[in-house]
Amino acid sequence: MKVIEHLRRYLPQEMYRLIEKFEGSVTEIRIRRGKALSLTLARGEGGAYGYGENYVCPLIVHDVMMNQIIASLCHNSLYSHMDSMTEGYIAMKEGFRVGVVGRAVCENEKIKYLSSINSLNIRIPRFVYNISLEIYRLLAQGFFCKSVLIFSPPNMGKTTILRDLIRQLSSGAPSRRVAVVDSRCEIETELLRESCHVDFLSGYPRGKGIEIATRTLSAQYIVCDEIGGTEETQSLLSAQNAGVPVIATAHASTTNELLLRENIRMLHERHLFSYYVGIQSMRIGRAPILSVTLASQT
Is residue 152 scored above 80 in pLDDT? Predict the structure, then answer.
């Protein structure tokens, strides 16, 4: 099945047919109320993640179409998805990430609900075999007892590397038991679900998911995406105290920038991570260019 085939049930047929023409090169689909459908394309071998060409499609997204798409993405239950939408996303299966923005209604500087939704950004997941080999070998050198934090600016391929690393760990020789705290339901894919050694905690708050993985799953690795908040800091330290190594990602351009974040600095001072791996370049069809920093030298 083509990756974008999973979108057929959510999008109008005329929109899907336009997008289908770009299967293999489309990385993001931007649907804006009253505006033309636009796509981000990484064309050809070597196309960069996060820096694709913006292509405008000959289709205007009118109000009825927009409302139908939103209803479909929410399975006709807008209210049940409001909590995640106030956080900026709609959770989907198969690794798709849908960014959501609109008109917010706030109380005490906290978003209560969205009175209207005006823009959607559907990010197309990728599964690239062996893209995580360098990091896997790094973990193997540490006898699979070390923790690693992978960082880069947004949309540079962190989650793509994470998926392949989960595959490598759970299917290697020997295979490892991996617990994946997938708070936004964007890591899990059909391929990873086939592994007998991966448990997905889908939709769990990161802190609670890490706590459950540590206490009840006897995981040999805990994996989570986009850390940095207070909610997961203590849970990560508890996992460390229990002897469970962690693989996580975070947004930052450099190690110095990464360690300016208060909660990550706290984890650094407690020696949670052994390695910081920065994604310098990520191009389709090529191995990623990574920078590896020993935490002990930072």
Answer: yes
Residue 264's contacts (CB-CB under 8 Å, 6 or more residues apart) are 149, 227, 228, 250, 258
d(CA 239, CA 247): 11
User: CA–CA separation, 32 vs 293, rounded Å?
Assistant: 41
Tell me which residue has tokens 């239950």. Answer: 77
Structure tokens at 139: 């973990």
d(CA 181, CA 215): 13
Q: What share of the chain is helix, strand, coil (3-state, %, to 5)?
A: 35, 30, 35
Amino acid type, 152: S
Burial classification of residue 40, based on how many CB atoms lie within 10 Å of its CB (0-12 exposed, 13-18 middle, 19 or more buried): buried
What's the pTM value of the predicted model, to 2 decimals?
Answer: 0.86
Q: Phi and psi for 205 in degrees, rounded to 5?
A: -55, 140
